[in-house]
């Protein structure tokens, strides 16, 4: 049997890092992935897919990724169910990542005005 998922998309929010009771790191974020075809109106639709990372990968993702970054995620699809506080049964589909590749560079902040131009660079 085979359960492999490969996705390329942009983070919709910053990763959330937390630790289990046993001290294991777990990070979660959502990935916006465009569908490879246009709908009837000629527009691309986007799927928002929940991603979960564990251990060292979770810590790396939380340290280096932010909303809007382009990444490739390789992992497996996991369907889990849980019970809400009011007793309703819910199912969640998520990708458990075993590799995340950073496909772009982090955006750098604009330089301060004092760094932006020297007196010699002023055109007048």
List keywords for this structure.
single chain, 124 residues, mainly beta, OB fold (Dihydrolipoamide Acetyltransferase, E2P), five-stranded mixed barrel, disordered C terminus
Could you characterize the architecture of this molecule?
This protein has a domain at 1-13 and 24-76 and 99-106: Nucleic acid-binding proteins (OB fold (Dihydrolipoamide Acetyltransferase, E2P)). It has helices spanning 55-64, 113-116; strands spanning 5-11, 16-19, 25-38, 44-54, 70-83, 89-102. The chain is built from two helices and six strands. The radius of gyration is 20 Å and the shape is globular. The chain has a five-stranded mixed barrel with strand order 1-3-4-6-5. The protein has 124 residues and is mainly β. The protein starts with a strand and ends in an 8-residue tail after the last helix.
How is this fold's topology laid out?
Blueprint: E1 5-11, E2 16-19, E3 25-38, E4 44-54, H1 55-64, E5 70-83, E6 89-102, H2 113-116
Parallel strand pairs: 4-6
Antiparallel strand pairs: 1-3, 1-5, 2-3, 3-4, 5-6
Distance between the termini: 70 Å
Taking pLDDT < 50 over at least 5 consecutive residues as the criterion, the unreliable ranges are 113-124
> What percent of residues are in strands?
over 45%
The biggest beta sheet is recorded as:
5 strands, mixed, barrel
Helical percentage: 10-25%
Structural class: mainly beta
Query: What is the overall number of helices?
Result: 2
Q: CATH architecture of the domain at 1-13 and 24-76 and 99-106, please?
A: Beta Barrel
Number of strands: 6
Any idea of the CATH topology of the domain at 1-13 and 24-76 and 99-106? OB fold (Dihydrolipoamide Acetyltransferase, E2P)
Mean pLDDT: 88
The shape is globular
Write down the secondary-structure element order: EEEEHEEH
Please compute the radius of gyration using only Cα atoms: 20 Å
Assembly of the depicted chains: single chain
């Amino acid at each position: 049997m085979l359960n492999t998922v490969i996705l390329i998309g942009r983070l919709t929010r910053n990763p959330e890092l937390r630790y289990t009771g046993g001290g294991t790191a777990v990070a979660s974020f959502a990935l916006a992935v465009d569908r490879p075809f246009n709908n009837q109106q000629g527009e691309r639709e986007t799927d928002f897919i929940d991603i979960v990372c564990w251990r060292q990968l979770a810590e790396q993702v939380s340290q280096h990724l932010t909303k809007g970054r382009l990444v490739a995620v390789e992992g497996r699809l996991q369907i889990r169910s849980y019970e809400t506080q009011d007793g309703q049964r819910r199912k969640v589909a998520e990708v458990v990542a075993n590799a995340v590749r950073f496909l772009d560079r982090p955006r750098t902040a604009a330089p301060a005005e004092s760094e932006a131009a020297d007196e010699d660079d002023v055109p007048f």
